[in-house]
Specification:
Length: about 130
Amino acid sequence: MRFLKFGCALLGLLTLFNCKKNQSEAIELITPAEMKEISEIEGIQLVDVRTPAEYKEGHLPNALNIDFFDPNFEVNIQKLDKTKPVIVYCQRGSRSAKCASQLIANGFVKIYDLDRGFSKWKSSGFEVEN
């Protein structure tokens, strides 16, 4: 009986570990240079999860603004195509990391997260739209 309980517990832990591994494989942290390259791929979805006020002050070209703090955030991300890769970014990386996890939980296939966010993009000298 003890062996059976141990086996079930071990199986549960392995399943949990495998789910975490798959989630981390589906989210890739990328540099501004990598993001510039990836964002030029046809069909990629570029999402700015900052507030509308932050977005208005400057954003990446062709970025869609879906405010992470909006009460309708979950509904708004469902409008994206789950089968196509998504690039997310925020100001410094915290909100986009949370967003990336939510996207995976909602069935999105591949997520790229801009390391250190819009502030790193801007300080790297890449194009910004107002």
